[in-house]
Here is the input.
Amino acid sequence: MGARSASSTSTICSAPASPSQLVTQSFDVLVIGGGIHGAAVARDAAGRGLKVMLAEKGDYACATSSASSKLIHGGLRYLEQLELALVRESLVERAELLKTAPHLVEPLRFLLPIYGWQKRPALLLHAGLALYDLLSIGDGLPPSGRLKPQEIAELPRLRRENLGALLHYHDCQADDARLVLAVLLDARARGADILNRRAVTAIEPLANGYTIELDERGAKRRVDARFIVNAAGPFVAGVDALSSIAPPPRPLRLIRGSHIVLRMPEPVEADAYTLQDQEDRVIFVLPWLDRRFLIVGTTEVPERGDPGAAACSAEEQLYLLDAYNRYFAPGSGPVTAADVVWSFAGVRALQDHGGRKPSRLTRRPALASIANGSGGFVTLYGGKLTTHRAFAETVLDELRGLGAYIGGPWTKDVPLYGGGESRAALLSLVAQDPATISRETRHRWAFTYGDQIERLYAKLLLEPNLAQEIAPGVTRVELIHAVETEDTITAEDFLLRRTRLHLLLDQGGRDAVATWFATNT
Here is the structure.
């Protein structure tokens, strides 16, 4: 699978190779950016027989792709903008991901309260949900409907004043960072050269393609590629600027989406909520991490600083808290900034359509390309987590138009890395030994690693001492797997993106993980 060999008893990562040790290589495609779209293009291209390299300057999914609302959804609000094709495509891809990544994507019921003060009338929302059902027909999820008065009465916190109706529908929730990793590891399994902390520092045109200079974890390297795919998200303009032959730039708007995280109040609720603010925006309230927390978001504001340093502002936090308190009345009183246990923000590079509000900018992906001899350069804009697979097919079609000799589409219905077992089968694996691992940890593993949990079990069978915990629920076997198979370099990689343990561990546990990485990588 392209994993780096490692000893379980010695330092796992070796020092970067010197320039003399690095042999110049040629690739068909260099993909720049290790977010969801770069991952999807690398996977699709590798599966069609192309020689692929992917370069990610930071960690995989370290920017926008791990700062989403964690939803795989059709985009109910896009119906209002008459983007029916986008919604239909998204719903088809939602059904696809339920089949190909069942360990990372699960159905979730959403409640949509309707109050007299909202701008959207109840009739419009009823019609929208009926159309949503029609566009998603055949995917196996329950249809939308309306809660009965006795069901509404059982909801513990929703305000009842001026509540006219409560509708419900289904979409899906996902671990966004793990989804990116599953796509990347599948690409690697198909022969792609995937690596994080690999920065592109220069791009020079050749007669038929490009030569690229890389900083690969401190080592300098030069490679050639016939085609470049710029999937750098909010950083696309900077990547395009590295080459004198790049696609003509498109007008972009960098839009920040921020979320806050609250502890789940008692009693616990399993449903998500789709809320309308006092204008026309939508805010989600989402149960997260086995219903231990709530995600509230998102905002949509212009990002004027470094997209890599995006953070939830005090104004955005207040906006989200106000929205939550407008709809919910917890027994302990309104939530405040003191109740926010974490916040995160990501930046999208959306096509600029003039003076539209950020919420009205299309999420439909787009691309621009330019030929360079028998090679070329393709830059990606926009897009959704949900539709990454379909967008990758569009990119491959563009490469074919530029002269790439490739096979046909193949990714539909093909499981992602770890996605070979159903959720029911994964629960059966949870019930298996090893008894040295708690059931709670085995359950977390199953819905983090999917069918790859068996690799962890097999390693424990050979080396039972790897069941040793260095923090509650964090074993040596999992840490070694993260380094050997998933290119994990730092404690932040592990706690924030390979797992979500940064919220589940206390400071002592996080420090223990940091110490392990400091001494073993």
Q: What stands out?
A: Confidence is low (pLDDT under 50) at residues 1-21. Residues 84-100 form the longest helix (17 residues). The chain has three domains: 19-64+178-250+363-401, 105-173+253-360, 423-520.
